[in-house]
Amino acid sequence: MVLPRAGAAARGWGWGWGGGAAGRSPPPLAALSQVLRLERSRRTGVVFPLQKLARYLAPGADTARFRLFQPGLAALQRAEALFRSGRDHAIDYVSSAVRMDHAPPPALPEVCFIGRSNVGKSSLIRALFSLSPEVEVRVSKTPGHTKKMNFFKVGKYFTLVDMPGYGYRAPQDFVEMVEAYLQERHNLKRTFLLVDGVVGLQKTDHIAVEMLEEFGIPYVMVLTKIDRASRGLLLKNVLEIQEFVKEKTQGCFPQLFLVSSLEFSGVHLLRCFVAHVTGNLPTVEAS
Predict the structure, then answer these.
(1) pTM over cut 0.90
(2) Phi and psi dihedrals of 110, rounded to 5?
(3) 113: left (phi > 0), else alpha (psi -120 to 50), else beta?
(4) CA 214 to centroid of chain Cα atoms
(5) pLDDT (tens digit, 9 = 90+) per residue, 126-141?
(6) 11 in the Ramachandran plot: left (φ > 0), alpha (ψ -120 to 50) or beta?
(7) CA trace torsion 172, 195, 149, 22 (10° rounding)
(8) Do 32 and 252 meet the contact criterion of CB atoms below 8 Å apart?
(9) Among 55, 81, 161, 278, which is disulfide-ready with 112 (CB 3.0 to 4.6 Å)?
(10) How does 61-75 read in b/e, with b if 16+ C-beta sit within 10 Å?
């Protein structure tokens, strides 16, 4: 497998926060090369926020679920290369669909991102693609802005799908649309279920979990907006959700992923996990 070269820095790639405007610098810490310049403690917090949070557990607490996926630098760099567009590696918005017969052919491994309205889903996808300024991911201040399934093709490697939000202002046909996708999309490798890191699991999140469990869909929970939560509140929510995953789920990956789209905490690790579950990192060496 030949990946596009992972440059040492962003080298002038523009990043339009409104989507698509070139000529601007990438956000701070969008590239690993920027993160590596930080002092060690802060660097750990950006790349492995869950691991850093584990330091505040009570003595003797089990930390296994805090470090199940802990790739080394080489794997993180290879994953970043996938998310950086280049001459021979196009990252494109492909199409939007409200019905499965409008969806693009299932030719590549696929991941989808789903979550409650206003959980920060589109903002996170925009952060993942922040090194590719031509990729337009629309983000609105109005909850429920995403009304269709939006497909993004990452070269010849995988497709990422931005699903409509559930709960407040969800599309009327949300259930039919999402259930059909989950049941019929046989190239789906992992569903990323986004949960607000400030408020934790809500009733609508439990309904989403029940749906994924019923359909036997492998998924992983991602806690968003961690920059808005105090350390104590975040640790409380993490421990409660970890216990829920352990006791009440079968298809959920036992490690949570913590992210801040604003500060880029956890974004590099999440890129790596996406690359891993789509088969583009055959082996992930530990750090």
Answers:
(1) no
(2) -135, 145
(3) beta
(4) 22
(5) 999 999 988 888 665 5
(6) left
(7) 130
(8) no
(9) 161
(10) eeeebbeebbbeeeb
